[in-house]
Amino acid sequence: MIARETRRLRRVFERILILSAAGGAGLGAYACSSSSNGFGSEGGDASTGHDATSGSSSGSGHDGQAGGSDSSQGDDVATSETGAAEAGCSQAVPPDASFSQCCAPSAPYIFDAGADVAPGCDPYHFDLPCGLPSFVQNIFPPNCALYLSDCAKICTGVAYPFTSCEVANGSGCDVDAMAFVAADGQAITIECNKCSGVGRRPAGLARPRGRRAGSALGRYFASAAHLEAASVHAFERLAEELESHGVGSDLVRAARRSARDEVRHARATTRLARRFGGEPPAVRVAPKRTRSLAAVALENAVEGCVRETFGALVATCQARSAGDAEIRRVMARIAVDETRHAALAWAIARAIEPRLDARTRRRIASARARAIGKLRRDMEAGVSVDVARGAGLPDAESTGRMIDELSAAIWS
Asked: pTM, whole model, 2 decimals?
């Protein structure tokens, strides 16, 4: 089953990359790497693809124009962290008031050294004294993520391309409860993230602690190494849960083999990170009980069938297009393994989803579709030109077309 899925994915990937090289009809001319900003770096948010919650759109009669989406106005719009008080406003000001005074986001600020910061990602925080703006119509559990178009109206005045934003945990969001918990008009904090990525992340993965890397490539590979090491935990847990639920022994063995693969990947990407001045942070994963088969299937749909499948395609692209010979060699090995890991995810889906009731299968299909949409939004932003060229990452336009092609061939 896994061998058959692997061959299927390889055929699809090869078709996409051939079209990439030839500028094939229906896909357009695009390249795995280019001089424009590229694919977002590994690492990232904690979204799991649970059902979306309706945003607390706090207030009425206010359209999306009030937020201002032009990032060039950030310094003019932003006030200090106590902007509402300094402007002579009270918390009674309705949330649908203009950002221009009382409800303007604070000036962007970064975590203090030593706090939970992904290496090189430098997430910035913005305090919103009047709570969630009325133009925000939806937020998504478990980390209270916003649409990228809404992020653009809040994450202003900073010199980096953000890839996502979310309500900060403990400041309007309760990640454990998977809910936005702030009352209407209550001050909240928005975290604007620089990094996102793909790959199988274990439940309970904590935000990494680490020092700033010495170069853009160092930051990229430090983040990649962290995710590869985290994937070891994800596959080990997957093997245990598959075994406990009586799923086929061949899938259990493949999950354990995948964990061993990820150990090698973590070592290889760590060497690359250190070569370019980066240092991967330690992986911290909270212990978890064995989950239901439905929970395993839901995570597999998002982390495996979507994120790992796309990550395997990108790794295949990097193996051919990276500007550095050592990076090409490392990614060539990783691409082979990651394609097999993605095939495992699809084999698991075909083995266990038929055992679930119709309602659960609909939930899984919905979660998979939302994960594809979030992947698309995350990939709209990119990394620096140096990272895109050096690591062989596709540009933002190319990733969108890759997602289109995967959607038609695999995800439909």
From this structure: 0.64
Q: Residue 307: is it exposed, middle or buried by C-beta count within 10 angstroms (0-12/13-18/19+)?
A: buried
Tell me, which fold does domain 2-44+200-411 have in CATH?
Answer: Ferritin (1.20.1260)
Alpha-carbon distance 49 to 58, whole Å?
24
Contact present, 124 and 155 (Cβ < 8 Å): yes
Q: What is the pLDDT of residues 25-40, one digit of tens each?
A: 333 333 564 433 332 3
DSSP 8-state symbol, 383: B
Report the C-alpha gap between 45 and 205 in whole angstroms.
10
| Beta carbons within 8 Å of 267's beta carbon, 6+ residues apart | none
- The encoded tokens of residue 16 equal 């996409």
- Residue-wise pLDDT tens digits, 336-384: 999 999 999 999 999 999 999 999 999 999 999 988 988 887 776 555 6
- As annotated, the residues of the chain forming the CATH 1.20.1260 domain(s) are 2-44+200-411
